[in-house]
């Protein structure tokens, strides 16, 4: 049984599940930034590229958007000094996915090197030369960037 309420909230056949058809704050302009924000504290919505979002930011033309909050990722805290409840949303699991892929790559690579290539010790690390060169390349990149900020005429080869 579906019941229609005046605030456009409906209950479906699944117990304790609410479907929200409209968001609470849609396309609210932030004057200083020039961006639009949409926010629905009690449910998710979809707008441009934001899917199942709780919070979304849109560009000035409302053609591009970025999801900045998922309804399933809310953390509530109480700010005793201000006397406010603060809710923080996150969107996506990008860092966790990258970390998971990296760990899978290393474990799979080590197993391959050890059992197929019969490598021993540190030689079992896949692409060992690449991983060993990362710290040196990061330092060189930082030196190059700092030299450009300080406007020194330094080429990358001089670093």
UniProtKB/TrEMBL annotation:
An example Pfam family from this entry, by short name, is Man-6-P_recep
Query: Which residues span the membrane?
Result: 86-112
InterPro entries associated with the record: Man-6-P_rcpt
Keywords from the UniProt entry: Glycoprotein, Membrane, Transmembrane, Transmembrane helix
Q: PANTHER family of this UniProt entry? A: MANNOSE 6-PHOSPHATE RECEPTOR-LIKE PROTEIN 1 (PTHR15071:SF0), MANNOSE-6-PHOSPHATE RECEPTOR FAMILY MEMBER (PTHR15071)
Protein name listed in UniProt: Uncharacterized protein
Organism the protein comes from: Mya arenaria (Soft-shell clam)
């Amino acid at each position: 049984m579906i019941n229609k309420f005046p605030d456009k909230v409906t209950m479906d056949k699944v117990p304790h599940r609410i479907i929200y058809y409209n968001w609470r704050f849609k396309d609210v302009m932030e004057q200083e930034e020039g961006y639009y924000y949409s926010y629905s504290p009690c449910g998710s919505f979809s707008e441009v590229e934001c899917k199942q979002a709780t919070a979304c930011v849109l560009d000035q033309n409302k053609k591009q958007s970025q999801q900045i909050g998922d309804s399933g990722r809310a953390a509530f805290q109480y700010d005793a000094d201000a006397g406010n409840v603060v809710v923080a949303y996150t969107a996506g699991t990008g860092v966790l996915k990258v970390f998971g892929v990296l760990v899978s790559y290393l474990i799979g690579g080590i197993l391959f090197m050890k059992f197929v290539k019969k490598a021993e010790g540190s030689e079992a690390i896949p692409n060992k030369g690449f991983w060993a060169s990362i710290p040196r390349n990061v330092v060189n990149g930082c030196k190059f960037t700092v030299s450009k900020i300080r406007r020194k005429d330094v080429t990358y080869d001089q670093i």
